[in-house]
Structure formats: structure tokens, C-alpha cells
Amino acid sequence: MSTAASAKNGTWRNWGGNVSARPAREVTPASVDELTAAVRKAAEDGLKVKAVGTGHSFTSIAATDGVLIRPQLLTGIRNIDRDAMTVTVEAGTPLKRLNMALAREGLSLTNMGDIMEQTVSGATSTGTHGTGRESGSIAAQIRGLELVTADGSVLSCSEKENPEVFAAARIGLGALGIVTAITFAVEPIFLLTAREEPMSFDRVARDFDELWAENEHFEFYWFPHTGSTNTKRNNRSAGPEKPVPQLQGWFEDEFLSNGVFQVAQWVGRAAPGTIPSIARISSKALSARTYTDIPYKVFTSPRRVRFVEMEYAVPREAVIETLRELKTMVDRSGLRVSFPVEVRTAPSDDITLSTASGRDSAYIAVHMVRGTPYQAYFTAAERIFTAHEGRPHWGKIHTRDAEYFAGVYPRFGEFTALRDRLDPDRRFQNDYLRRVLGA
Predict the structure, then answer these.
(1) Which of the 8 DSSP states describes residue 288?
(2) pLDDT in tens, 378-387
(3) What was the pLDDT predicted at 3?
(4) How far is CA 233 from CA 42, 317, 378, in A?
(5) Confidence bin at 439 (pLDDT 50/70/90)
(6) Which of 35, 128, 211, 320 might form a disulfide with 123, Cβ 3.0–4.6 angstroms?
(7) Which residues have a Cβ under 8 Å from the Cβ of 300 and sit 6 or more positions away?
(8) Can you give the pLDDT at residue 264?
(9) What are the pLDDT digits (tens) for 82-99?
């Protein structure tokens, strides 16, 4: 089964299976010129335009009944500049291909998320991130980008060129234009030592500030219905390389984390009463391990169990209080939650609508397996997140609107004013953008 979204009988569906759309037509441009022609033609026909990557967003951010742009032919590296330490890639390049190509060149991104199936433009436009004390989201590593705007013109943006567009378009939600190329900062490839180990919820809660301060990349998973977490600390290492042995890697990452986990999800769906017991077993299944490898082999992991997800960024100092409230809610609710809750961090950045814009942030992500009712859990979680001025991930389920965002993003008006200028006729509008940015 493909990790990307699927299209059957003219219907487009996202990876999570919770969003579908029927575009009037699909276009797969092989060049920037073909893309600008498609945008101009859509305008002549009075159709909206949306670009879609691999459909890893759980919101309808890419859905359209107009023209759906598929960027799979706009892939590959355009240029590596070893003096500036940057790489310029076509927007439809999957992160996986970028990471592998960079590794072959002895280069790497500084930080990345835990999935690498997305296209570079899809991942950055929605604010995809990993975890980091000093290093931010994938979009925070952008040094330049190329954007096709509503009138079919091509804008180059950086700190020097069109800086006000650059400030916003790094996480542009597809609202300002269609990104056709991205220039990322890169560095010589390095090694990371990952230390994964179980830890009690109470200990992580008590020592969180210390664990965050002592590690370049700290994250943990809490298993609902238990007092257990699994922690992961990634730090730079002088080596030597000591990857997870192949058989052990298959057993832990494929068999346990995907295969057994999938079966546990099926059992939990059929008999929700078994979920707390399964959670207790799951939380003890993965034992401690330490390994050293190149960045993308440490940061990313396969995700074969399909799910839906809500994730909010809260001020970093509020994360443990927020998580405790979430735990209390789950314990008292009668809900049966079979998927771990993921907690990560990011430093403050200067991107207009970044979830970490202007504040040190921590992320709390709640998941449910695809096909199970998630509304009650997500609604209760969202009530907790928003009480802490949470900012939802743009590509994950939430119910917030423009009025809410104007309150939690100090520069929200700056973004909407730029959109008025670049897309006055709302060529790139869809129902999702109408809700989150206002009409």
C-alpha cells in the first residue's frame, strides 16, 4: 500500500483517509513554466488552485473542487552551494529522497521530523517539525524559496529578496502561492547517538526541564491508561557509527512498532475494553537501546499503522501542566485510547504563522487509529490545549478559526494583509483557508 494519498475515480483522498475531494481537473506540471500556465488557465476558467504533496495532512488544507496540482515531476536537487552551505530542491521532492541524496554528498539537514514521506513543500507549508532544544522546524532551516503567485508570476524570496514574503511563505499554508523550489541550510553530515529508554510518567514530569536542557533533541511518548513513557534523547556524537543491527532493527521498528502495534490496534478496535491492558503491555514491550548513526536514520522511523492526529503547540513552560490535565481527563473519562501521546519541543522562531513563532514551544500530539471514532477524545484534548493558548499544527485535526488565531498569533494580521496583496481574488482559497484565515 502506498504511503501517499490515493486518487480513484477522480476522488482524491489523504493518507489518514479522513479527507476526500473531487477536483475538476488534475495537473502534473513538469516545469515551473507548465505550473504558471496551469495557474493562469485556472484563472481564465474561474477555478481555484491547490497543490498537494503526499496527503500527509489530516486537515483539508490541500482539498479543492478546482485544479489540483500534483508536483511529483518537480523533483530533484537543483543546486548544492558548498560555500554558502545550502541546497536548492524542487518542491515535489520527498524528504526521504532529499535526505538520502544529501547523505551521499556528505551533507545533512540539522533537524527533521519523524516521518520522511512528505514532499519538502508540503512538509514546510504546514510547519512539520521534529524536536530540538536549539534547532527548529524544517521550515526554520529554509534560506530561500521560489513561489508562483496568483497572477502566474514567479517570486524569489529570501531575507534579502522580498523579505516580507519570505517571513510568511516558509509556512504559507498554500495561501500565498505555490512553492516551486526551496533552498535549505545544510551542514556536513554528522553522527547522532540515540538513547531510548522507558521512564515513569512522574519522573519525566518532574525532570522535564532538566531532560530538555541536557539534550539537543529530547522527546517522549506517554501511553494513556498507564504511568509509563518511552523517552528518546538524540545528541551529536564523535562516533564511531554503531547502527541498530539489521535483525534487531526489523524486530523493534517493523515487528513491534508497526506489526504488533497494528494487531494491538485491531484488537482494541474490536474490543475497546482490552485497551488499558494492551497499553500496559505495549508500554513495556520496547526495551532500552542506544545506537549511533547518521541523522535521518536516527530522527525518522517508518509509520505503517494509519492514524488520525491532533497536535497543539503550547508555551514550553506550560507543557507538563497541560499534559497532567490531559492524563487526568483520560483517566476520568471512560475513553479508551490505544495510541501513545507524543511530546516534543522547538525553540522560538521568526516565521509569521509558525506554531513556534515568537515563543519557545512544546508539542503535544494525540492520535487515534484510522477508522475509530476520535471526536470525543480530540474535543476534550483540544479544550485543554486551547486553555493554554495552544496553536494547532496546520496539517493536523483542529476546530479553530481565524478569530482564535488572531488571538494566539501576534503577527496574524501581517499574514492576512500579505495574502490580500498576493492573492486578492483568492485563487488559492479553499474551505479550510476560509475558516483559518477568514474570508
Answers:
(1) P
(2) 999 999 999 9
(3) 40
(4) 48, 19, 28
(5) confident
(6) 128
(7) 96, 99, 112, 113, 114, 115, 116
(8) 67
(9) 999 999 999 999 999 999
DSSP-derived letter for residue 340 is P
For the chain, the first-to-last Cα distance in angstroms comes to 38
Amino acid symbol at 210: E
Whether pLDDT at 57 is above 50: yes
Which residues 6+ apart lie within 8 Å of 85 measured at CB? 185, 186, 187
DSSP assignment string, 43-108: HHTT--EEE-SS---SSSTT--SSEEEP-TTS-SEEEEETTTTEEEEETT-BHHHHHHHHHHTTEE
C-alpha grid cell for residue 6? Answer: 490515493
Cell numbers at 270, concatenated: 474490536
Q: Which residue(s) pair with 311 in the sheet?
A: 365
Residue 2's pLDDT is what? Answer: 39
The beta strands (E) that lie in 101-250 are given as 107-108, 142-148, 154-158, 178-185, 187-188, 191-200, 217-222, 228-237
Question: Alpha-carbon torsion 95, 98, 104, 108, what sign?
Answer: negative
Q: What torsion do the CA atoms of 132, 134, 136, 142 make, to the nearest 10 degrees? A: -140
- Name the residue among 245, 390, 423 with its Cα closest to residue 323: 390
Q: What element of type H or E holds 309?
A: strand 307-315
Report how far residue 81's alpha carbon sits from residue 183's, in angstroms, rounded to the nearest whole number.
Answer: 10
Per-residue pLDDT tens for 319-355?
999 999 999 999 999 898 988 999 999 999 999 999 9
Task: Determine contact, residues 256/286, Cβ cutoff 8 Å.
Answer: yes
Q: Answer whether residue 258 shows pLDDT above 70.
A: no
pLDDT digits (tens, 9 = 90+) for 292-317: 999 999 999 877 678 899 999 999 99
Bridge partners (DSSP) listed for residue 68: 26, 50
Q: Which residues are bridge partners to 8 per DSSP?
A: 11
166 contacts: CB under 8 Å, gap ≥ 6: 144, 145, 157, 158, 159
Neighbour-count burial of 426, counting CB atoms closer than 10 A to its CB (0-12 exposed, 13-18 middle, 19+ buried): middle
- Arithmetic mean of pLDDT over the chain: 92
- pLDDT tens digits for range 23-54: 999 999 999 999 999 999 999 999 999 999 99
- Per the DSSP assignment, residues forming a β-bridge with 237 are 191
Determine if residue 151 is left, alpha or beta; phi over 0 gives left, psi from -120 to 50 gives alpha, anything else beta: alpha
